[in-house]
Write a structure and sequence with these properties.
The complex is a heterodimer of chains A (about 110) and B (about 110).
Chain A lengths: L4 E3 L2 E5 L4 E6 L6 E7 L6 E6 L5 E4 L2 E5 L5 E6 L8 E8 L6 E3 L3 E6 L1
Parallel strand pairs in A: 2-11
Antiparallel strand pairs in A: 1-3, 3-8, 4-5, 4-9, 6-7, 7-8, 9-10, 9-11
Chain B lengths: L4 E3 L2 E4 L5 E6 L6 E8 L3 E9 L2 E4 L8 E7 L2 E6 L8 E8 L8 E2 L3 E5 L1
Classes of the chains: A mainly beta (about 110), B mainly beta (about 110).
Chain lengths: ~110, ~110
């Protein structure tokens, strides 16, 4: 099935550092969602974005809906060990209820 | 509030056996999605329902897979007969088509076919 391009594929960072990841597509999306998945669990919704240019925060997480509507970004500030996991973006096109998911960014935080 | 509920959490079966995975969506949600996750292919949408009606089943791998949603609070995904390549984690997710379209996932069923 189709997937969004998500980068980087994996990251190793020191505790306290900031993290940036992004998701790009050749298609325009109306909605972007960002999820975090822990081992053995289902993806948990972190942030939802509905308008081009929108910037939304959830604690130390900030996500942006790209102006072109073809990309989205997620930033994590002052990372902590529990930020470890896989982060997924998901985009929804106009006229459909289904989402296309990114390939995931695997984050590891070194204490 | 209860989230999406899936059962069983783990299933180990032999090739050729029938497997049934179950899902209870969040109360009030009227869209339900079945996904499969593997290391090689990531998260793949298999099928989704709106108001209990299948809308898009283009992701269902083959005729061995079938899904039903007899009412707003229950759905099943059946594999018959199962094959080793069906081993994966299967997720159910639900959302409201009249709201924000935010999709919430269940904990998943890890299926192993030997």
């Amino acid at each position: 099935g189709q997937q969004l391009n998500q980068s980087p594929q994996s990251m190793f960072i020191q505790e306290g550092e900031d993290v940036s990841m992004n998701c790009t597509s050749s298609s325009i999306f109306n909605t972007w969602l960002w999820y975090k998945q822990d081992p053995g669990e289902g993806p948990v919704l972190l942030i939802a974005l509905y308008k081009a240019g929108e910037l939304t925060s959830n604690g130390r997480l900030t996500a942006q809906f790209g102006i072109t509507r073809k990309d989205s970004f997620l930033n994590i500030s002052a990372s902590i060990p529990s930020d470890v996991g896989i982060y997924f973006c998901a985009g929804q096109r106009s006229g459909t209820y289904k989402y296309i998911f990114g390939t995931g960014t695997r984050l590891k935080v070194l204490a | 509030d209860a989230g999406v509920i899936q059962s069983p959490r783990h299933e180990v079966t032999e090739m050729g056996q029938e497997v049934t995975l179950r899902c209870k969506p969040i109360s009030g949600h009227n869209s339900l999605f079945w996904y499969r996750q593997t290391m090689m292919r990531g998260l793949e949408l298999l099928i989704y329902f709106n108001n209990n009606v299948p809308i898009d089943d283009s992701g269902m791998p083959e005729d061995r897979f079938s899904a039903k949603m007899p009412n707003a609070s229950f759905s099943t995904l059946k594999i018959q007969p199962s094959e080793p390549r069906d081993s994966a984690v299967y997720f159910c997710a639900s959302s409201s088509i009249s709201g924000s379209y935010e999709q919430y996932f269940g904990p998943g069923t890890r299926l192993t076919v030997t």
